[in-house]
Design brief:
The protein is of the alpha+beta class. The chain has nine helices and six strands, in the order αααααββααβββααβ. The longest helix has 23 residues.
Length: 263
């Protein structure tokens, strides 16, 4: 008999809403203090400057508010764990949107407007609302979990590119870590490798002999930020193994062929 299909992870909607709002607020406060020299630095993401990356983060909040202002879709097409695999096709549209956002107003004003719109939109809509999105229709509850990925990943990008120390909201970091771990398990279903990202996530993946008790024969372990950087293509498997930020034991524990999950 085949194993029962695993139920998708559920998230506390109130905590996710609070985490998204808080992480956006952390970035907004940091962006207000950026100097012209910092804004002009390369972001490390293609041709974007730090200013364009910061504008993209403002767009993340504003586009969600605008999506909630549109008529709802009928049925969700994507879950949160499926979302990472649908993002690649949108790179061009997102880059264009970031540049258009930057020309709209000074960054502090963009953040103030986007934050206010987002707060109003979230207050007015339940998690069951289905959003009509470029990427595919999703419930607001699921899409908000994906916003923790966007916000945490770009907080890390801004910290590294501009020499900042923007904090990570714990619930946002946890949700981001878990979504990307679940996406790996979806991409490579199985039970032969256990991937541990303490303190937030443990998943089993990769076809092969299934572990049932004791210490699994194939184990990968890393910290949340290293995992997030691996999953989003900010760093490479070999480099993190060499730096001892990833430990991998067992003949099936090489995840290099499965990463990144999104880039």
């Amino acid at each position: 008999m085949p194993p029962a299909k695993k139920k998708p992870r559920t998230y506390d909607q109130a905590k996710i809403r609070a985490a998204v709002t808080a992480q956006f607020g952390h970035v907004a406060r940091a962006v207000r203090e950026l100097t012209p020299e910092q804004l002009a630095r390369p972001s490390g993401l293609g041709q974007w400057s730090v200013a364009e990356l910061a504008a993209h983060v403002a767009w993340i909040a504003d586009s969600l508010a605008r999506g909630l202002a549109r008529p709802p879709a009928a049925v969700a097409e994507l879950t949160a764990a499926e979302w990472p695999f649908a993002t690649a096709s949108l790179a061009g549209k997102i880059s264009e949107a970031a540049r258009e956002t930057l020309t709209g107003a000074p960054l502090p004003e963009l953040y103030e407007q986007a934050g206010a719109r987002l707060a109003d939109a979230l207050e007015a809509n339940p998690g069951s609302r289905v959003l009509d999105l470029w990427i595919g229709d999703m419930t607001l509850a699921d899409f908000l979990v994906t916003r923790t990925v966007e916000l945490v990943v770009h907080t890390d990008d801004l910290n590294r590119a501009a020499g900042l120390g923007i904090p990570f909201e714990r619930q946002a970091l946890a949700a981001c870590t878990r979504l990307l771990a679940d996406a790996l398990a979806l991409k490579a279903p199985g039970g032969s490798v256990e991937v541990r990202v303490p303190p937030f996530a443990v998943v089993q993946c990769v076809e092969g002999p299934r572990h049932t008790r004791g210490t699994p024969p194939n184990v990968v372990e890393t910290d949340p930020l290293t995992w997030i950087r691996l999953a989003t293509g900010r760093t490479g498997w070999a480099a993190e193994l060499e730096a001892a930020r990833v430990s991998a034991s067992g003949e099936r524990a090489d995840l290099s062929g499965l990463l990144p999950l999104m880039s």
